[in-house]
Design goal:
mainly alpha, 45 helices, globular
């Protein structure tokens, strides 16, 4: 192969600006890397007189060949190859670094291949330690050695070797003590010397990193690592304290070395987590060492804008990793009689309080405070999990002051930036802080579990302090964040506050109504509105505080925080609906003014209509009619105008969807006869409570529909080919149907006609759901049964036609959404009204046939819905001859398809669902199922990876289980993995 051509291609690839040319060149270079000739030309490319790009390509080619094609080197050539590789390392020992790095990795790969030689790692190590590569400096040889040692465990995971992988791991486990011991000895010698030269820092970094790679197998016992821990702590101490830092900032090399050492400590403490109790004494000893050496560093770095934030971050991570792995060991010091253990626990908690309370604002001034959040959950859980005795009670009292302090810290840390400091924040910072505030809210909930009512006392004190701070300088418009953060803390725990008339909550609501929001940032008002909504449940138990909440939320409707106001009103009117009647009419007037103001966004208008429906449900019938005319008529007037103008522009589409969504929200909440129980599957007529009007009066939603049904039909016709409009219209009618139930009967024919109109164009999921609800509610009504049968038959025929059309084109995946909707519909009918199939003499065999085809599609939805349908259909079929005949006739095909799916048609993540089909057949057809499942005896079916013995054992296990779904799922997962020749289980299926 022409080496010159390769060199030119490499130069072209790295230096050409033509992307197409680079792509073609890259493909050609990859091909020649795979060729046997690559073993020869890679050495030719690695000559000192070649360009660095060419040298690098030669080095990565050598690494690629060693990794993938080791078998091409004759065994008798191994020694010669090793010598040639070492000569190349010597050649490039002084650079370029990228070439030397690749050669070091190649030597690591070579060692992995040679692990069958018991002393290969020792031999190579001694060669470098004893300065046997005379042309290189001692320091360079050590740097190379550490890079090689670091690479061995990493390369062992990816190399293609003739040695069994288990043997490779076994050999590495045996050599871990030697490798880590070599590195620790080297580090110790350097630290015990007079001074470490700056040129040696890179060697120290490589050496430290190599410890992490050797520890990843977890074979080094925790109690055997003490000398390593002490050396690493000494290394960190040296890097941080070795000389005064004028600006407080460590050099980059010192920082990298210290961070690498801390990462090794993290690896040590996390590698033996399953043996926490076994090494409890060792863990305590290590934690004391960590505290003695690292706590002073954290104290020095406990300041804003410190230059060594990354080091502080990873040191805190070490402490938290240790606590996470050995929580019970450390927390045993809460009430321990051992003074040292108690002191260690106290010092650890103090350290993590300081972590949470890191000076500055996250994330612009500091990055550590978010880390300790997890610890406050762990500490609480540790106490929670204790037996209910005096010891637990004492622990509870012992940790309460800690959590009380943390609450105060979290309030301070959750302050938003004000207008003066906002310029320092970018969009990523703001998003990080939003997530941080969410974490703070969750942590405050955890604190409430510890503090209970004391939490409200702490928040009340914080509220007083924040108001005092606000009033200290009334002219300062930027001092609102502390008050906003305090209100946020109240909001975070609102879900925990129930029943009692807590004076702290009463004071909060009073304060929220007295704040002059116009003076401050609108974010303060937004949080106040969110909090008023969050306390809706408490207000429902204490309704006399409803007026101030309503007053505040109504004020918010005319502000820039209208979104929070509409959310709060939605919660308040839902939780306090019965108590809302005395305040309903003024609130409706406020909602009407907001809707007509033109200030609200679409989502806010839609949400506010839900509130309107809730309020209307508790006022007199006459007032309902009056406000419907005022507030709902404009929606339909605009829709009528659209139909008259035949306007199908993009702007018109948006307005039509908005108005239909507003109507839909009203339909979902306006109900003057609330169902005593709502069932998502709508099995039949609901039992209604007649409140506050008598049964003879027409439901307001029905009144609206009676007047507007012709308009809705016209909208459907006008926008029939616009899926988004049709879907929104169907959802609105679906909401009306769900709310009215059997009361919608006078309009049932109109709704059915509209559904069929939609089906004439496209199968809309909401139309199918609505059709299913109609059938489930009205099939037993003799007056409606014939229409329901026609509707059911129309849905079947439409979907059969669509699936046949796409099936013939082998494009069933193109209608996966239709398939998913169709089989979801049939599952509901099969569960609740299977008599429908007999009534219309449905072609159940065809239905099963399409379900089997849907099972074999790549899309998740059709797989799950068709399998769910088949399992339910099989269960119900025993009571219906038509269904039973179809199942019996198709049973073997169902099983054949099921096994093909397990064999490879279905993604492995979804094979669990097929257990339901096996269970249904085994449970409902116990005498036939053993005969049907014998199709599995067919040779090489479903794949040639699974043996007859494996299949026999699988059948035996499945036949044994008729109700245990979890166990059958486990059998199915293992069988599917075996069919695909995939390793998925620690316990082999054959032995299970």
């Amino acid at each position: 192969m022409d080496v010159r051509a390769i060199e030119e291609a490499v130069i072209t690839f790295y230096r050409s600006g033509n992307q197409q040319q680079q792509g073609e060149t890259h493909q050609w270079l990859q091909q020649i890397q795979e060729s046997p000739q690559a073993w020869s030309f890679c050495w030719d490319l690695m000559q000192l007189n070649k360009p660095s790009e060419v040298q690098f390509f030669g080095a990565i080619t050598l690494h690629s060949k060693l990794t993938k094609h080791w078998a091409e080197i004759p065994k008798e050539a191994h020694v010669e190859f090793k010598q040639k590789l070492l000569e190349s390392i010597v050649l490039f020992g002084n650079g370029p670094k990228i070439v030397l790095s690749q050669l070091c990795i190649s030597l690591s790969v070579f060692i992995v291949h040679m692990l069958e030689h018991q002393t290969v790692i020792e031999d190579v190590t001694n060669m470098f330690l004893n300065d046997q590569l005379g042309n290189l400096s001692k320091n360079t040889q050590l740097e190379i050695l550490m890079s090689v040692l670091e690479g061995i465990p990493d390369e062992a995971d990816s190399v293609h070797t003739q040695i069994p992988r288990s043997l490779v791991r076994e050999q590495l486990n045996k050599k871990a003590a030697f490798a880590t011991g070599t590195v620790v000895t080297y580090l110790s010698e350097k630290l015990n010397g007079t001074r470490i030269d700056e040129s040696e820092t890179t060697v120290l970094i490589n050496a430290t990193k190599s410890l992490t790679t050797w520890l990843k197998y977890g074979n080094v016992r925790l109690d055997d690592c003490e000398s390593m821990v002490q050396v690493l702590l000494k290394l960190i101490h040296y890097c941080y304290w070795k000389e005064p830092k004028e600006d407080g900032c460590m050099s980059q090399d010192d920082s990298d070395l210290a961070e690498a050492a801390v990462k090794v400590l993290v690896k040590i403490v996390t590698s033996q987590t399953s043996n926490g109790n076994k090494f409890s004494t060792t863990v305590v000893r290590y934690m004391k060492l960590f505290l003695d050496v690292l706590n002073p560093i954290l104290d020095a770095e406990w300041k804003e804008n410190n230059e060594n934030e990354n080091l502080a971050f990873i040191i805190y991570t070490l402490f938290l990793s240790t606590l996470e792995c050995y929580t019970s060991v450390i927390c045993a010091g809460i009430l321990s009689e051992n003074e040292d253990l108690t002191k260690m626990y106290t010092n650890t908690v103090d350290l993590l309080i300081k972590c949470t309370n890191k000076p500055g604002t996250y994330p612009v001034d500091e990055s550590c405070s978010t880390l300790a959040m997890e610890f406050w959950y762990m500490l609480q859980d540790e106490v929670f999990s204790m037996p209910n005795d005096d010891r637990k009670a004492k622990c509870w009292e012992a940790i309460k002051p800690v959590y009380a302090h943390i609450v105060r810290v979290l309030i301070r840390k959750s302050q938003l930036p004000n207008e003066k400091t906002l310029h320092r924040w970018n969009s990523d910072d703001l998003e990080s802080f939003r997530c941080y505030r969410q974490d703070i809210g969750d942590t405050l909930l955890s604190c409430h579990d510890v503090l209970n009512d004391l939490m409200l006392d702490i928040l009340s004190e914080a509220l007083d302090e924040s108001i005092m701070y606000l009033n200290y300088d009334p002219q300062n418009v930027d001092n609102w964040p502390l008050l906003e953060a305090t209100v946020h803390a109240y909001c975070s725990i609102a879900q925990k506050i129930e029943y009692a008339e807590y004076p702290q909550v009463v004071k909060l609501l009073k304060v929220l109504n007295e704040i002059p929001y116009e003076k401050y940032s609108d974010k303060l008002l937004g949080m106040a509105l969110e909090t008023a909504g969050a306390f809706s449940d408490w207000i429902s138990d204490n309704p006399k505080y409803l007026p101030p909440a309503i007053e505040l939320l109504v004020k918010g409707l005319t502000s820039s925080q209208a979104s929070q106001a509409t959310l709060g009103l939605k919660d308040l009117t839902s939780e306090c609906q019965k108590e809302m009647a005395p305040y309903a009419l003024p609130l409706l007037d406020a909602c009407r003014a907001a809707l007509s103001s033109g200030r609200l966004k679409n989502a806010e208008m839609i949400r506010l209509m839900y509130t309107v429906g809730n309020i209307m449900s508790v006022i007199s019938y006459e007032n309902i009619i009056h406000y419907l005319d005022l507030m709902v008529s404009p929606c339909f007037e605009e829709l009528q105008m659209n139909v008259q103008n035949q306007d199908k522009s993009e702007a018109a589409r948006g307005r039509v969807i908005l108005r239909l969504e507003m109507v839909s929200k009203l339909f979902s909440s306006l109900n003057t006869r609330k169902p005593s129980e709502k069932d998502g599957d709508l099995p039949g007529p609901a039992q209604n409570i007649q409140h506050p009007m008598v049964a003879s009066q027409v439901q307001p939603i029905l009144l609206i529909l009676e007047k507007t049904m012709p308009l809705l039909k016209n909208i459907c016709s006008l926008w029939l080919h616009e899926e988004s409009v049709v879907e929104t219209l169907c959802k609105a009618l679906q909401q009306a149907l769900t709310n009215l139930m059997e009361d919608i009967k006078p309009l049932l024919n109109d709704i059915c006609c509209l559904i069929l109109l939609v089906f004439g164009n496209k199968c809309a999921p909401s139309a199918v759901e609505m059709a299913g609800n109609c059938i489930l509610i009205f099939y037993h009504d003799l007056e409606c049964r014939e229409n329901m049968k026609q509707l059911f038959n129309a849905i079947l025929e439409y979907n059969f036609g669509q699936m046949q059309q796409y099936d013939e084109q082998q494009k069933l995946s193109d209608v996966s959404d239709l398939i998913e909707t169709f089989f979801s519909f049939n599952t509901r009918i099969t569960k609740k009204m299977p008599v429908c199939y007999d009534a219309v003499q449905a072609d159940c065999s065809r239905l099963i046939d399409y379900a089997m085809k849907s099972m074999m599609l790549p899309e998740t939805g059709p797989i799950k819905k068709s399998v769910q349908f088949l399992s339910v259909f099989i269960k119900e079929s025993r009571n219906h001859p038509l269904m039973m005949n179809s199942v019996v006739g198709q049973a073997e095909n169902i099983l054949r398809t099921t096994f093909l799916c397990l064999g490879g048609y279905t993604p492995r993540a979804h094979v669990d669902v097929f257990a339901d089909i096996l269970l249904s057949l085994n449970c409902k057809y116990p005498s036939d199922f053993p005969r049907w499942i014998r199709i599995l005896e067919k040779p090489n079916f479903p794949t040639f990876f699974v043996s007859p013995a494996d299949k026999e054992l699988f059948v035996k296990k499945v036949l044994k289980e008729k109700v245990n779904r979890r166990l059958v799922q486990e059998h199915v997962r293992k069988f599917a993995a075996m069919c695909r020749n995939a390793v998925e289980w620690d316990i082999d299926f054959r032995a299970s």
